[in-house]
Amino acid sequence: MPEYLIKQRKGWYATLEIPKALRSKFGKTRFKETLHTDSLKVAEIRKHALVAVWKAEIDAARGSSSNLDRVVLVRKKMAEQKKPDPVDLAMILTPQTSEEMSDLEKNRHDLSKVLYGKKFPLKQFVADYEKTLTNIEPKSKDMRLSTVKRFLKKFKYAEDATNREVKNWIETDLIAEQGLSATTCRSIVSHLRQYWKYLVDRHDLTLPEPFKDVVPARTRTRKQEVAVKRTHFEPEDYQKLLKACKDSQVETLMRLGVYTGCRIEELCSLKLEAVKEDRILIQDAKTESGWRTIPLHKKIVKLVADLAKSSKDGYLISGLSFNKYGDRSNAIGKRFGRLKTACGYGKNLVFHSFRKGVATQLERLGIAENVSANLLGHDVPTITYGLYSGKRLDFQLLHDTINKLKWD
């Protein structure tokens, strides 16, 4: 049975058990209310608002919620169609401790405005918002929540977040003090827009979003932008890194990277069933064009065979650890980062720069762009080859092309 749901007479009801110690206070053993639907999918969406209110009531009865939490709860009850019990509301609003009484006296003006809908608190709905983020990857979810919480440290109420104040926050706090780029700030604003829209759609926030034109067009000079733009490794850079490397896994990763053009996560997640005698198959890419066959360069045929034979965990690069998002490339990527920094390379050169180096060599060799795109897993940009062609090229052509790469 789905959580917090029961089905009766072909309709779904939201329900939540009340702790035994509080049942006498509520006069019942559980909360229960119809969701006015026979669709489980719709019920799963509608239940969250009710359950959130019920949990807030339980916290208020326990005395474990703040004054603002209780005021938001009462505000919700006052906004419902049915008339709330004045005694019930008064019980919820009554401070439980001397600290809460002191907080009530200190913030009475703001709390009164919240109660009567003149101020909208932003923090109280983050937990509910998190429950709606079900169709995105865990890492993306954490990034969105982290962005929202960063915003809420600055802005407690929606009324505080005017366009001017948000712009000042971005330019002063994020760009000037924290050194974030305009691109990063635009990503932050995109996440905040989603949270604001959620509040408008689900919690009756009526203020328009304050994020129009809050990120400056440019935060660096042209000279600075060129200096930090990521570039490619040349063969002499690769040889320098190999010579300095004392980490066998990082060395293996580099050798595979320069002769395949693969991304670091593609190599670290490559399983043995995708490794053949003369090729590797990239079968877990984010786009259709990323799913591809890469012939093995003559320089790594033996290396790949040895790695496959000695693997103890089913991966071509054996023994890597997973982070909390199931990513095997995170730790070894940091180890490579320490190596390249020790060799004197800056932020504009990363592991992905090997992939850029492969693309650069193919371009210098005059390789047709559709051939390079097939090897690197890029979309083919032309109408004829990109739209109408079957896209997959002859293996021998790809084999001959990849073997033109020279890194020694």
Give short descriptive properties of this protein.
408 residues, mainly alpha, hpI Integrase, Chain A, 3 domains, three-stranded antiparallel sheet, two-stranded antiparallel sheet, 54% helix, DNA recombination, DNA-binding, Tyrosine-type recombinase/integrase
Structural description of this entry:
With 408 residues, the chain is mainly alpha-helical. The protein has 3 domains: 5-119, no CATH class; 125-224, no CATH class; 235-402, Intergrase catalytic core (hpI Integrase, Chain A, Orthogonal Bundle), CATH 1.10.443. It is built from 20 helices and 5 strands. It has helices at residues 23-26, 40-62, 67-79, 86-93, 98-106, 108-115, 126-132, 138-154, 163-177, 182-203, 222-228, 235-244, 248-260, 264-268, 301-310, 330-342, 352-364, 369-376, 383-388, 395-402, and strands spanning 5-8, 11-17, 30-34, 279-282, 292-295. Strand 1 (5-8) and strand 2 form a beta hairpin. Helix 2 crosses helix 3 (67-79), helix 3 packs parallel to helix 6 and helix 8 (138-154) crosses helix 10. The chain is elongated, with a radius of gyration of 29 Å. Keywords: DNA integration, DNA recombination, DNA-binding.
